[in-house]
Amino acid sequence: MTDLPPSSPATRPYEARPRPPHQGERPMTGFRSFLRSGHAPTLGSAFFYFMFSCAVWVINGVMAPFISEAYHLTAAQKGLMLSVPIFAGALMRFPLGVLAQYIGRKNATLVEMSGICLAMLYGYFMVNSFADLIAMGVLLGIAGASFGVALSLGSGSFPPRYKGLAMGLVGAGNVGTAVCALLAPPLAQAWGWQSVYGAAAIGILLPMAVMIVFAREPTDLDKHASLREHVACLFEKDGWAFSLIYAVTFGGFIGLTSFLPSYFYDQFGVSKVQAGQLTMLVAFMGAALRIFGGWLSDLWGGVNTLTGVLLTVAVTLVLCGFAERSLTVTMLLILVCFAALGAGNGALFQLVPLRWPLTTAVAGSMIGEIGALGGGVVPGAMGLSKQYTGTYLWGFVLMAVCAAVMLVLLSFIQIRWTRTWAEKGGRARVAS
Questions:
Q1: Concatenated DSSP letters for 43-92?
Q2: Does pLDDT of 391 surpass 70?
Q3: How many Å apart are CA 262 and CA 275, to the nearest integer?
Q4: Which of 5, 169, 229, 361 is the most exposed, having the fewest neighbouring CB atoms within 10 Å of its CB?
């Protein structure tokens, strides 16, 4: 695999403007300037769409204590049930990204949300066994395919200096996982866990309506680019480096979010509703800090931010493994870990449009596809660790080792990045 030269179409920024002064600028004035620089209604529509998609994607994870009780699942079976939607969503991201290049990102979101609605109806009417749950997990992957298109749609009308913040705001739609963790368990307890699928089928109609009314297709992409140019990032070392790092940050976020309701319920004996509430807190932390990660990366640099993120994740995960007897200590550590994961997600996608300014949708989908596969490993690794060693420790240690390896990779590869397409620390290059 070879890297494209800095002057190639896939790496040359399509717009270069002087960076606005950060020091001395009032926060509200700066945010208004940010909103005026792009199309805010599309940004909001993309956030809303991504929030609902994230909520649907982890719905089986949030309901896992109910489902496990209904079908008497082993730890390994629970891990499989939670891994399937993540793997399926990862594999569907790249095809949706390619589709978006040809029918438009707005139209692609409407096609996907229609598929989500049909999948939820299948879950409500047809799921009656563990085999059906596995099939339902594949259908939930439709919701997981939303990531790259949502970020590209929301940030498409914003200039390079604001891409990190725009993508951070859209990516904060990960808060949908927290909303699902808060609302789904009480609904499942009151009306049965299948009713949650029915509620989701109705709920997805709202972001569809918002997308139709308020969003517009950005004009930042080269509509005449060839398929070869669109998929060029698949054959570059940078693309794989981004994907592997994302497998730790986003993969860790989505994998742990799916797994934590079962972990809190089984390990600490809390109620099913309380397990959802605890998961809501940590998922909200990760989603909220994604915005901060994008903003900090615009200011400080995505590479600098990711360095701190990976170090924090590695340390807190190891400590979580040794704190499995204390719910209080575990919660504090997981909150810090999720804060770092969220900031890392925002930081990485601040770098994506700098590296692939003309093919951001496809590059984001490819990185999201491979990166999200890391999330599919998390529940399975945790389940196997518990079933065969009697503790979740080794699952946490495995994730920490992966974070440490990515930290070493980043320390080497960032040297070339800052010599070609980014300023020192990973900030956007500006016109001289």
A1: HHHHHHHHHHHHHHHTHHHHTHHHHHHHHT--HHHHHHHHHHHHHHHHHH
A2: yes
A3: 7
A4: 5
- Go through 334-360 and write b for each residue having 16 or more CB atoms within 10 A of its CB, e for each that does not: bbbbbbbbbbbbbbbbbbbbbbbbbbb
Contact by Cβ (8 Å): 150, 173: yes
Domains along the chain?
A: 40-217+228-420 (1.20.1250.20)
Q: Where is pLDDT greater, at 128 or 168?
A: 128
Contacts of 104 (CB under 8 A, 6+ apart): 217
Outline where 192-217 has alpha helix (H): 194-203, 205-214
Q: What is the pLDDT of residues 117-146, one digit of tens each?
A: 999 999 999 999 999 999 999 999 999 999
pLDDT of residue 14: 36
CB 229 within 8 A of CB 9: yes
Instruction: Give dist(CA 387, CA 397) in Å, integer.
Output: 16
Q: Identify the CA nearest to 152 among candidates 214, 219, 85.
A: 219
Q: What is the pLDDT of residues 325-345, one digit of tens each?
A: 999 999 999 999 999 999 998
**Rounded Cα–Cα distance for residues 149 and 333 (Å):** 32
Between helix 302-322 and helix 272-300 the angle, nearest 10°, is: 150
Q: For 429, which DSSP code?
A: P
331 CB neighbour count, 10 Å cutoff: 17
Who contacts 332 (Cβ-Cβ below 8 Å, separation ≥6)?
Answer: none
Is the pLDDT at 5 greater than 50? The verdict is: no
Check: CB of residue 63 under 8 Å from CB of residue 137: no
Specify the 3-state DSSP secondary structure of 323: coil
Number of helices and strands in the chain (H, E): 19, 0
